[in-house]
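C-alpha cells
________________
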Amino acid sequence: MAEPGATSRLRLSGLCFLLQTFTILLFAAFVRFSPESGPGLCSQPLNCSRRIQDWGSQPPRFRDAHIQTLLGFGFLVAFLSRYGPGSAAISILVVAFAIQWALLLQGFLHQFRNGKIHLGAQSMVRADFGAAAALISTGAVLGRVNPVQTLLLTLLGVTLFTLNEYTLLTLLGVSDSGGSVTVHAFGAYFGLLVSRLLRQPHGEQREEQQDTGHQPDVFVVVGTISLWIFWPGFTSATTAHGSAEPWAVLNTYLSMAASTMATFVLSPVLYEQSTLRMVQIQDAAVAAVAVMGMAGEMLVTPFGALIAGFLAGLIPPLGFRFLTPFLRSRLKIQDTCGVHNVHGLPGVLGALLGTLLAALATADAYGGRLEPVFPLLARGSRTRTGQALLQLSALLLSLLLAALGGCLTGELYLGGPGRGPRGCARCCR
C-alpha cells in the first residue's frame, strides 16, 4: 500500500517530472511524423490516392484500440470496491506513460530511419498494445503497490513487452495480431511473478474486495459494454491490410458471445447466487478476446470460434473457484484482479489454438488470405510444421521472459523479499 504523507506525494511528483522530461527530450531528438502523415503535397496523383486510401482505414483502428485501452482495460480493475475510483486514475497514469515509452522503444526497433523515428497512426496502435500489457500486469498487484512503484513496473514491463513482441513477430515471424501471447499471456504472468515477490501473509481476497459499492458496479457496466463494442476492432487493429481483417472481427465477436453463454452455464452451478454479477460477464468477454488474439485472423471458422469462446468462458468461473485459492495458499501469489484466469490461461489456450491452425493452414483453404496471415508460409520459405512449432515456441519464450522479468522487477524496483540473485531464484522456482 502507498505510504502516507508528503514524502510519498513528492516521490510521485518527482518521478513523473523526471520521466516526462526524459521522454520529451527523446521525442525532441528522435521523433518526427512519418512522410505519409505529413501535410506535403503528393508527387503523383496515384500516390496521393493510395495515401488517402491507406490512411482512411487507420483512424478507426486507432480509435478502437485507444478507447479499448482506456475504457475496457481501465475499468477492468474498477470492480474492486476499495480501489474503484483510485484504480481508474492509476490506469490512466499507466496509459499516459506507457504509450509514450512504447512509442520510443517500438520506434527504435520498427520505424528508425536516417536517425529518426517516423511516427504514424499504426505506431499509436502498437503503443496501445504495450499499454494494455502494462495494465494487465498492474491488475495482478493492484492495492499492494503505490503509484511510484506502478510507474516503475510499467517502465520495465513495457520495455520487456517491446523486446518480446519484436523477437516473436519480427524476427521469428510468429502470427499474433491480437496479442494472445504478447499482450495477454505475457502481461498476466509478468504481473503474477511480480506479485509473488510482493506476497503478504494476510492478503485480501478478490471476493471481499469487490463485494460492496454501487459506483464500482457502474464502472463494470461501462467497461463491459465497451468491451463488446470496441474489442473486436482492437483485436483486428494490427492485422494486415486487406481481406484478413473481417475474420478477426467476426471470430472475436462470436467468441465473446459463446464465452458469455458459458459463464451463464457454469457460474450458477459453482456459486450460490440467483443472478450473475456484472464482473463475471466482463471476465467472460476478456477471456473470449484473449483466446482469439492469435487465432482471430486465421481460419477458425464460425463454429470453431464459438467452440473456442465457450471453452474460454469456462476458465474464469473455474479459475476463481479453484485456481485462485490454490495460487494464494500454496504458491503465495495474490492475484488481485484475477489476471491469471481472464488473461493468462485464455491467452495460453489461444496460443495452442493458433498452433493447431498454423499446422492446418493451406493455400487452398486460405486462398489470397494466406499471404497476410502467414507470409513466409505463402512464399514457400517455411513449412506448416515449422510455422506451428514457432507459434508454440512463442508461448514458451513469452512465459520465460515474463517470469524472468517479473523476478527482476520485483527484486530491483518493488523491494521484494530476498534481494539479489538468490531471491530471484526462489521466485522463479
Q: What stands out?
A: The chain has one domain: 58-428. The longest helix spans residues 384-412. Residues 39-57, 201-214, 416-429 have pLDDT under 50 and may be disordered. DSSP finds 18 helices and three strands in the chain.
